[in-house]
Reverse transcriptase domain-containing protein
Amino acid sequence: MGSELAHQQILPSSVRYLRLFQENPYSDGTIAAGQKLSTALANAKKDRWIELLENLDMSKSSRKAWQLLRRLDSDPLVNPGHVNVTPDQIAHQLIQNGKTNCSRIKMKINRVPELETHQLSSPLNLKELREAIKRCKTGKAPGLDDLMMEQIKHLGPKAENWLLKFYNQCLAHKQIPRAWRKTKIIAILKPGKDASNARNYRPISLLCHLYKVYERMLLNQLGPVIEPKLIPQQAGFRPGKNCTGQILHQTEHIEEGYEKGCITGTVFVDLTAAYDMVQHRKMLHKVYHITQDFDFTKTVQTLLENCSFYVEFQGQKRRRQKNGLPQGSVLAPTLFNISTNDQPQPPLTKSFIYADDLGLTTQAKDFETVEKQLTNAVKDLSSYYKENHLKPNPAKTQVCAFHLRNREANRELKVTWEGQELEHCFHPKYLGVTLDRTLTYRKHCMNTKHKVAARNNILRKLTGSAWGADPQVVRTSALALSFSTAEYACPVWHKSAHAKQVDIALNETCRIITGCLKPTPVDKFYKLAGIAPPDVRREVAANGERKKVEHCESHPLHGYHPPPTRLKSRKGFMRTTTPLDVPPATARVSLWAAKPGNSNWMAPQEGLPPGANQEWATWKSLNRLRSGVGRSKDNLAKWHYLEESSTLCDCGAEQTTQHMYACPQCPASCTEEELFKATDNAVAVARFWSKTI
């Protein structure tokens, strides 16, 4: 509506300016008409921006909100340049990823009828169909059939029954539609990689959503059957396990080494195109042996055979896919776990696996023993990878030593794999967390600080104009953008002395939410933002993770007991956390209220205080008046920003923040209590001073 009105106002001005410009481009009338048109265009852009921000709501339309935030994050001045790579080269590289040096594999499944079960081959029911559709995400790109998930979620009872009958026919006859075998691939450049190299693109498979629903139903049946049979070292895409738990598992093992006075050597194994290298015949053999269901194995074979793909760009031809698992398939992670479920556990080592990421560790009292044990361990892995046609990449595989021997801080591990010495990295990254020799997490905290600072720049674009955005939108965006990044895997590093570096960036996040100035006390703007301080949020998150450790049997640390304490300075996860016994929101408010130095200026609460429904300028003015830190003349003089010598208000009194509550020139007056309640008088005062304070 606003855009149509602006168009109606701009059109006459543009027609008049064009007519005058054609008559005489240098006349006073033409210049005046041009200035009027420029003002109208500027106002129209402003109105469109306000309308866009007013409609930005993370809770109702997060997809549109994220699209806007991504556009704000991009730099229109950066020219990506010409990319000298074709879709055909990318498609050829994907084919090469799945090729091995061996001849064609022919493996016959040796059936054992007396041990076979048929629990995975029973017909699907309507409850399973509805559950699968419910768990599928919306807002995803369609496959070749152009059918959106939103359409599937709105199917009526008759359509659901027809679809269920169709799926059961696919299951009974071991056949699927041809369109399901054809995949559209979008190639996405990996961060920081050379765009001219076809190897640097990550293939994302756009599969038909009906096929994904079918896969989801099969996965819901398969999961409970194979879960007890998967190796405990594998934490990828399994219920009760996640990245944070697996990182904690590894760091607690390293802490155990510190307590025992040992050196923990770790090899971070890199596999080349792990999913693309999975051999279908070998994998089907393993699927049969883990499920003992031949019919289900044939169903999986149906999903994988005779598949083809093309890279979408300028109509490239299809390529047949003989091996590999499509990245985008619902079943792919589980099938990969089955395919690698028999990987060896070398002697004197411990494995920490998440999908295709492997951290292989060993502990000893001296470096030489660690090097020897790791060299033997990767040699055992080579045999397994060769047998299963996986390609390890020694050039990208890294090693690191974790110890507290400062005299040997620069000592590098000498580990050889396939005739190549592995790179020693003093700051390896495992599942997104940067580690270091003594687990101080200094570099990780600094990197996180920079990430949060970059996201704060996006928030500033929401609030950087004179009219700003809705306060609730800014707060929700801040939690989704900045706080989520700052708190990734925080139970791992929440006791680090360098965590305060992350707090610096989050302080700025809350200043942006509230519009408070930099001299505002930290305690005040967190209360005005309705967000608990970062250290409180991290502690509650860590205690919540500890609760999972105690009560979730599938958690990697469940049942783990740390060794006796030898080093009083170490602050490992198991020693510094207690299981959370109340809801996280309640725990955050309680810890926040009990925090040392917490003032009674305003009661802690998670949620914006009254006044969040006001326009941005008024909201910002309210918070500056509430905190007592605004651009009043006495504050400007204190900060040496006042150009004139007098700190008197236009009414003749000393202009302090408290004076602004009841200045005679203001049409309204209020008390500090009214400011916190955002009464009509308080809002009127805030609106009057919005351009000053």
